């Protein structure tokens, strides 16, 4: 029987690159600082997940942990090393990140868009994968229609989700007018 510990390896931070598919795009510096202090005192309690590449490893799950470890200048971290194709890596990231409550709806929107663009998923597949309704997925996807200004206001918390969903229905030229 295979166990996770059979695949744990100490991996140098310099060998790890950040993948482009992480659903989380925004990171709170204060939160990373707190996590780094916890890691300094107690060690890294949950290994990161990486997949081998030609030049080392690509991070699949654990970017906050990796950033915190880099902040305190660790040289290596325990990592679960798994051979994953792009679709499997994306699915692991979805499970790791999107099932948490603290992922911003913009990050969800961008992830769902990426999944659709890859052609391996449709709206129903995504809904099933994360145990949400198709309406939820469609609403999140509509947030990709926000122009940069509204997206920024939403990320900062100046605009709430309800208002962002309404504004996202407008053409970008009208979004600009509403902003003024």
From TrEMBL:
Pfam families assigned: HTH_ParB (PF17762), ParB_N (PF02195)
Residue ranges annotated for the ParB-like N-terminal domain, each copy included: 9-98
Keyword entries, A-Z: Chromosome partition, DNA-binding
GO molecular function: DNA binding
Signal peptide, first to last residue: none
Gene Ontology cellular-component annotations: chromosome
GO biological process, one term: chromosome segregation
Domain of life according to the entry: Bacteria
PANTHER family: CHROMOSOME-PARTITIONING PROTEIN PARB-RELATED
Family: Belongs to the ParB family.
NCBIfam families xref list: parB_part
Protein name per Swiss-Prot or TrEMBL: ParB/RepB/Spo0J family partition protein
Organism: Snuella sedimenti
């Amino acid at each position: 029987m295979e166990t996770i510990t059979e695949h744990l390896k100490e991996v140098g931070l310099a060998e790890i690159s950040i993948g482009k598919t992480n659903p989380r795009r925004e990171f709170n510096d204060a939160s990373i600082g707190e996590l780094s202090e916890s890691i300094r005192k107690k060690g890294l309690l949950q290994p990161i997940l990486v997949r081998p590449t030609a030049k080392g490893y690509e991070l699949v799950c654990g970017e906050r942990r990796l950033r915190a470890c880099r902040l305190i200048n660790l040289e290596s971290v325990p990592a679960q090393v798994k051979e994953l194709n792009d679709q499997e890596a994306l699915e692991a990231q979805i499970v790791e990140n999107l099932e948490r409550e603290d992922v911003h709806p913009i990050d969800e929107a961008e992830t769902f868009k990426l999944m659709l663009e890859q052609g391996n998923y449709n709206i129903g597949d995504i809904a099933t994968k994360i145990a949400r309704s198709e309406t939820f997925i469609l609403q999140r996807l509509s947030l990709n229609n926000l122009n940069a200004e509204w997206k920024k206001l939403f990320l900062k918390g100046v605009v709430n989700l309800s208002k962002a969903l309404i504004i996202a229905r407008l053409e970008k030229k009208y979004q600009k007018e509403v902003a003024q």
